[in-house]
Known about the structure:
With about 160 residues, this protein is of the alpha+beta class. It has a single domain (about 10-155), classed as Aminopeptidase, CATH 3.40.630.30. It contains five helices and seven strands. Strands 1-2-3-4-5-7-6 form a seven-stranded mixed sheet, sandwiched between helices. The chain is globular, with a radius of gyration of 16 Å.
Amino acid sequence: MKTTDPAPPFTVQGTDWSRDAGELYAVRYQVFVVEQGVPEALEQDEFDPVCWHVLARGQDNQAIGTGRLLPDGRVGRLAVLKHWRGRGVGRALLDYLLQRARQQGFSRIELHAQVQAQAFYAEFGFVATGEIFMEAGIPHRTMRRTLPVTTLSEDRS
């Protein structure tokens, strides 16, 4: 008898800031402003409308996680609601963003990792570079990753 892994209790999909800003921001507000004390004025920026966003939803269709890819290939604002952490949501979001970056032709991506999250990003091949710096009152470190080159035939699958 063959068993299959059950579908994850969440979905991840690309989305648009103009359509889903409220849900995207609600997750980020809870994680960054409420939990981490980031000033609300710093949480949203002028880049949101031009970024490519990803949104995770629970089985009840409620937003549970988010992230974004900036036009220059930087990943940012990766956030998962506290009670969903440890269930693979962050991994699925980052996988989706990496796939999108490859599709967009980026050969290298970068992010500003909170120091406490460096190990998470290292599991995805990100390498820390430079000194620790403060961003929104939280210690961060720049991390980079080279992406494999894909051909058009690989992207069509």
